[in-house]
Amino acid sequence: MWLVTQGVRGLRVRVWPLLPTLLGTPRALSSLADKMGVYRKMWNPTEPRDWAQQYRERFIPFSKEQLLRLLTQEFHSSPAEKAAMEEFAAHVDFCTLFHYHQVLARLQALYDPINPDRETLDQPSLTDPQRLANEQEVLRAMEPLLAQANFSPLSEDALAYALVVHHPQDEVQVTINLDQYIYMQFWALGQRVGLLPRLSSVGSKRGFFTKLPPAERRYFKRVVLAARTRRGHLVLKSFKDTPLEGLEQLLPELKVRTSIVRRALLNLTLLVSGLVFFVNVGMVVLTDLKMATSLLLLFFAIFMGLRASKMFGQQRSAHALELAHMLYFRSTSNNSELLSALALRAQEEHAKEALLARSFLTRRPGGAHDPPEETSRWLQSEVESWLLAQTGCDVAFNGTRALAHLQALTPSIGRYPSSDFPKLDPLVAAPSESPPGHPQQ
């Protein structure tokens, strides 16, 4: 038994030094801590350093139906061109649906052994090295899907800024211990600067004495998180309408904390009320009951300590409830369901890029017969200018990838589904069964 115990301890000692090898370098937390120290020394930073170079928006801010309608109106006005464009869109839908169904099936098969929400029968438990290796394989398989879904990875510098800087409008503030994490990675799309959507009625924007006006924030329409704690498992989550300074609120293993300003105001309130209580009550006790001053001060200190503990406990409980409601309304998908949502988003972005490439190449005099490099540069420039004029968003369009999508789809174009394609029976709700002993009327 002693040998077995020593062997298990030895395995644990050998596993933790191997974590960087097993996980690659998705997030060097030691380097992250150094960058956090740099931001702590800065005076009131408002955004990460060189943010414009760090983050480029790649998300096309139209749904596929909206984009098809705009392109048809502007590029394909005649009935014949409109019909051809709709036929091409149907072809794209069919081909991308089959392709991303296969991609999702492979990804789900990789993720199933480490899925914490598995509803099927339990499988043999994995060792720490096996689980970590599986997690790394899933993250590698997710990278091309996230790239096609036009998510942009947030840099380590941006994450250091988010973990250090707290926006004054955020009443709920949290703190994390980096030593509890093995890795963390964020991806985002849909950067906006404006008023943050109010997602719940819990809490208020009222300050300690006055009502604070709403402030414009830098936030993202969608954020994907992949994080792993030392005593947990891989956490995959997606959130909406998340401010840059609020990324740390999405992490597991966090603690709610009270801001310095609010702690000072609470202490000041306690001090004033305590002095008033001591002057009005303490003097009477000293005069009438002849109690020793030291004993009275001891009772007073104990009372004030209990009162302070209760007030700070109530404040933390209120902030914890606000955080729970905020995450409830912002969370969109978790773990295995996130993989399905990513596949659907990647499929839609794939289709939008193919539609844009086909429509814009009809305007090019040489079409797609020029060298691919020149054609892709022209396509990227034209689409980016058009999107900027249509939406006001500076979107980085991948002309090379869009051209490859179009070239892969064009040779097999045809109306889909074809006439010989098998048609399944429509889904029909099963008739409800009456409980035993209660026949249907």
Automatic annotation (TrEMBL):
Keywords for the protein's UniProt record, in alphabetical order: Membrane, Phosphoprotein, Transmembrane, Transmembrane helix
PANTHER family in the cross-refs: TRANSMEMBRANE PROTEIN 143 (PTHR16095:SF10), TRANSMEMBRANE PROTEIN 143 FAMILY MEMBER (PTHR16095)
Superkingdom of the source species: Eukaryota
TM ranges: 264-285, 291-309
Signal peptide: none
Organism ancestry: Eukaryota, Metazoa, Chordata, Craniata, Vertebrata
Gene giving rise to this polypeptide: Tmem143
Pfam families in alphabetical order: DUF3754
GO annotation, cellular component aspect: mitochondrion
Name of the molecule in the record: Transmembrane protein 143
